[in-house]
Structure formats: structure tokens, C-alpha cells
Design brief:
The protein is mainly β and 343 residues long. It has one domain: 6 Propeller (Neuraminidase), CATH 2.120.10. A 5-stranded mixed β-sheet has the order 2-20-19-18-17, with no helix packed on it. Strands 3-25-24-23 form a 4-stranded antiparallel β-sheet. A 4-stranded antiparallel β-sheet has the order 4-5-6-7, with no helix packed on it. The longest helix is centred in the first third of the chain and has 4 residues.
Amino acid sequence: MDKFNIMSTKLLGVALGCCLLAASCQKSTTVPNKPAPANYIPRCGTHTNSDTSTTQQRIAGATVLSAPIAEAKFYKLFPSYNSSDDFEGSGVYYLGGYFYTVFDNRYKIGKIKSTLPINSSNNTLLSSGSGSSNFEGIAYDNNGTPNFFVVEESVSNGSVYQPRIREYDASMTYQNNKWAQYNFTSTTNNKAFEGIAWVYRGGNDYLLGLVEGTGKVVVLLKTGSNWQYVTEITLPSSVTFTDYSDIAIYGSKVAITSQEDGQLWVGTLSSTAWSITGGTAYEFPKGSSTGVVGAGTNVLYGNVEGVSFISNTQIVIVTDKADNSQPSYQTYHDQSIAIFNLP
């Protein structure tokens, strides 16, 4: 049995011009019977990662991580694929020498050997389905019969939009899905659940869902019919990210990433209360305009969408596809998987 016990904000900043756009560009977030936070300002428009973006809110004084100890583009890992094949990495979980990775443009889930062998039969795509999946995070439940949870960011459910949690067995065979009882009014701004982490507490299964637009961590209790809303965790005020792209838990450690800001924050989850405290900020290494890590001051890792602990001092990340609004040097590390040591 896996020994990793994954018990696995400042609000989104926007440029003033974006805030003056028509209300149709906005999205409010609500919990059942609870209003949207009064100071929530939705982000309008498309994803932008320019280093000079006025929306960036990197945590000052963050420790810069050293170059990754291993890194590879997804298409190079799987046999019979090439650079024209998109693998939009959106979540990752380390288990037993493999990285289980979800992609928001694929239903198939990657199982990648942790040594990252290129073009290897050790790297496979599991489960089935075609088209864009809207998958944004993956978690693992090692209590009793092991299984994986994969979250669809936000799906229409009657008059509201809710995250939907898909369950897979240990072989990554799809089992069922349940709605997460946390409401959004639309999916247009892509600001719903960006990551999940599993917690086993008091004989119950919980998922912590990270809201991309606010940084709120939503606590959900698994019931027979759905994932029931319990409460929200507010991150410490020092966590001032522009967006929030994934969450991972390792023991009492909690990792939160931001793709816009190219940073990682690690705090502490209470074992008795639903709270997260403390914290250390890390910055992914910068580099040159040709993507060389350490050879310049450009933000190279501007698309970090997934994170998982490998150990107490090591993490793995996966990256989404860079869009046309981003500087070209951020394509050198997009659609990739990379391993970093934590100081």
C-alpha cells in the first residue's frame, strides 16, 4: 500500500481596464446558501503570462529553486507521438515510482515512469475517451480499496455549474462520478476547481478543492450520492497569487502553485481543524529567451498547472500549453513534466 498519506489569497488581481469591462465578462462564485465573497473580483479575458503583466502578484522574497533534476516534454515520453501532439498537463500525482498525469485536452491519463524514460513502453496512456476532458486535478485514496479521483473543473448541473469528481480504480478503470456541492454561475472564465487533494479524517473521506480565481480551499465530504460542502479554508494573507493552479498534500505539508506568477507556496495543514498556516514561497527558476534555465531573468515556468510531492524535499510539476498571448520562451517548458528539489 502506498505510504504517501495524501490527505491529498489574496483574491485574483486584475488590471483596472479588465474590471471596467461589461458584466458579462464576469463570474461570481457561490457556495450553497452562501453569497460570493464581497471582495471577489473575477478575472476577465484570456490567460496571459507576459513577464510585464500588471496582474502578476508574485510573493516577494521567494526562494528561487535550482534547475530541475529531470524534465521532459510529454510527447517525447509516449511512443508514437510527436511535437504536433498536444498534452496539456493539468494535474499530477506520484505513486510507487510513477507519475499519474491528467490533461485537460485528453480523457486518457498518463502513467509515466519517474525516471522519465524517453519514447518508452514504461510510459502509457490509461483509461478511455476522446475529446477535451476538462480534467484539472488528480488525487489518490489509499484507505481500504485504493482508488483515484479526477476533477472536472466545472460542468453544467441544472441551473448551476459544479465540479464533477470522477472515480477510478487502482488500474485507472473508470468507476463512477459524483457532483461536488459547490456552485459556480458559469464556466466561461475557467476559474473553478483547478486541483484536488484527498484527506482521510475521523473515518471519512474528504477532498480539498482549490478554486482558481480566489485561492479558497473548499472542504468536501464524500457521501453516498455526492461530495458535500463542509467549509472553506482561507489561505494566509501572505499568499498573494494572481491565480491558483493546483494543490497537493504530503503529511501535514500543503503545496499551492500559481501558473501566472511562476511560484510555489508550501504551508501546513492542521490535523485537527480545517486551517492552513505558516508557509514558504518558492520561485521556479528563470532563464534566457531561448529557454535555458539560469541564463537570464525571463519567467520560463509560466504554465505550471499540477504539482505533487515525491518526498518531503522533492516535488514534480506538470505544465499546460502556452497560448499565443505568452512570450515565446515559455513554450520551451510547456506541456512538460519536471522534478525539483526543495531547499
